[in-house]
Design goal:
The protein is built from 10 helices and 7 strands. With about 220 residues, it is α/β, with parallel strands linked by helices. Strand 3, helix 3 and strand 4 form a beta-alpha-beta unit. The longest helix has 15 residues. It is elongated and about 50 Å long.
Length: about 220
Amino acid sequence: MTIRVLVADQHPVIRIGVENLLHTQAGIEVVGEAGDGDQAVSRTRELSPDILLLALNLPGLETMREIVNNSPETRTILLTNSISRQEIMKAVQLCASGLVLKDALIDNLTAAIRAVFAGKCWIGDHRASSLADALPAAVKEEPPPAKKNNGLTPREMEVVRCVVKGSSNRDIATHFQLSEETVKRHLSNIFEKTGVSTRLELALFAIEHQLVASDS
C-alpha cells in the first residue's frame, strides 16, 4: 500500500527538499503541498492524505484542530526546529502522532512516516508508544547559541535568505545582477562555512540557527 503524504511548510525549499527525499522511498508518495495553515486545511480536505507533514511554526497552526475534526483519518507529524517539553505538549494538544527535527529529516523522516502510518508515534529519532508517555525522556537540553552569522559575509547572508525562499541560482543572479558562476562560488563558500552540502541542508541550518527571520 502506498502512503500518501501532504507537506505543509512555509519555506519552499523545505517542501521541495522533502518531496525529493521521499520520491526515492518505495511505497511513499507526496500528493501535494501547502505553504500556510489555511492551505494545509483545504489541501488535507481535498486530498485526504494518510500523513500530513506540518511545520510546527506554520502561520495559522491553530487550524490544526480543524484538520483533526474534518480529516480524522489523516495522521499528522509535526516538523520542528527543536524538541522540548513545550513542543511535545503542543503536539499532544493538537493530537499529532509525531515530532521530527527539521535538521534530522534525512535521517529520520522516512522511518517516522512508516511508524506513524502503522499506528505508532514518533518523537525525535525514535518510535514511541505515545507522545505523552515519551515526554519525560524526550526533553533535551537547549543547544549552545550559534555564532550570529557563522562567518558569512553580508552578500552570503543575502544568498542564504534567497535559498530559504526557494530561489534558483538564476533567480539569485538576476536579483543581485551577478553571474551564475559568482552565485555558485558564494554557495560553495557558504557550504564550507556552515558545514552543509546541499541547498536543503543549508535552508534547514539557516532556520535552525536563526540566520533568517521566521517568516522569510
